[in-house]
Amino acid sequence: MTAPLRLAAFDLDGTLLDSASSIVTGVMACWEACGFPLPEADHVRRIIGLPWEESIIELLPGAGQAEFAQIRAYHEEVARGERPRPERSEALFPGVLPMLDAVESSGYLLAIITSRSGGRLMELLEAHGIRERFISLKTTDNGPGKPNPHLMMQVLSETGVDKTDAVMIGDTTFDILMARNAGTSSVGVTWGVHESHELRDAGAGHVADHIDEILPAIDRLTGG
After folding, report:
1. 210 phi-psi bin (left φ>0, alpha ψ -120 to 50, beta other)
2. What is the pLDDT of residue 1?
3. What is the pLDDT of residues 123-142, one digit of tens each?
4. How far is CA 96 from CA 68, 84, 110, 157, in A?
5. Rounded distance, CA 110 to CA 72, Å?
6. Rounded to an integer, what distance in angstroms lies between the CA atom of residue 211 and that of residue 15?
7. What is the pLDDT of residues 8-58, one digit of tens each?
8. 187 Cβ contact partners less than 8 Å away, ≥ 6 residues apart
9. What are phi and psi of 42, to 5 degrees?
10. H/E/C letters for each residue in the chain?
């Protein structure tokens, strides 16, 4: 009898990639250039993982199409070199590569579900040499973002994995709630932006304080 396919879907920022400080710096630079009132840095950290427009509204209540256009224009100017690019510090967390090796060697298909745009996601994965590891890449270019279950359901449909054999691994309650809404298990990680008690309260099947806990946790949750 053929073993069922199993899936490990990962968030990117705060889970695989240590990028929170760069995201905060980038938001602050954009807000200052656009003349918006600056948010608290911790507030910016807290909304990492939400879809783009939702995150803007969280930081700039009442924002609408005019503000979205202003922010898009700022990023386009940065991309063209017309404005300085805020300093970035984006590295894989220690242990990510061996962990991905172990999870893949254990028979899991690997996917990423992120609130990044597709173009930026590809840049980051290629820069860190991990693009080819993932069978599926889902961004908010593909539909409603976290905690909506849409992107997880897309991955399950495309890979043929049953929801009981899939686990979402992420550092925010948005990841955990997406998994719960899709009917899959989840593992919360504490080296990102949300606290362990928040991840548990959101419904995480396991909360990992160390990256070596991920494979045993997803094995347990899928019966692997």
Report:
1. beta
2. 54
3. 999 999 999 999 999 999 99
4. 34, 31, 13, 27
5. 31
6. 9
7. 999 999 999 999 999 999 999 999 999 999 999 999 999 998 888 999 999
8. 167, 168, 169, 170, 204, 205, 206, 207, 208, 213, 214, 217, 218, 221
9. -65, -30
10. CCCCCEEEEECCECCCEECHHHHHHHHHHHHHHHCCCCCCHHHHHHCCCCCHHHHHHHHCCCCCHHHHHHHHHHHHHHHCCCCCCCCCCCEECCCHHHHHHHHHHCCEEEEEECCCCHHHHHHHHHHCCCHHHCCEEECHHHCCCCCCCHHHHHHHHHHCCCHHHEEEEECCHHHHHHHHHHCCEEEEECCCCCCHHHHHHHCCCEEECCHHHHHHHHHHHHCC
Q: State the residue for tokens 């918006």.
A: 36
Q: Are strands 91-92 and 108-113 parallel, antiparallel or unpaired?
A: unpaired
Tell me the whole-structure pTM to 2 decimals: 0.92
What distance in Å separates the CA atoms of residue 119 and residue 102, rounded to the nearest whole number? 28
Residue for token pair 């199409």: 65
Q: Which two tokens stand for residue 27?
A: 């938001």
Q: Are 177 and 146 in contact (CB under 8 A)?
A: yes
Residue whose entry in the numeric block shows the structure tokens 């955990």: 176
Residue 219 amino acid letter: D
Residue 195, C-beta contacts closer than 8 angstroms, at least 6 positions apart? none
Cα 195 from Cα 174, distance rounded (Å): 12
Please say whether the beta carbons of 16 and 96 come within 8 A. yes
Residue type, 39: P
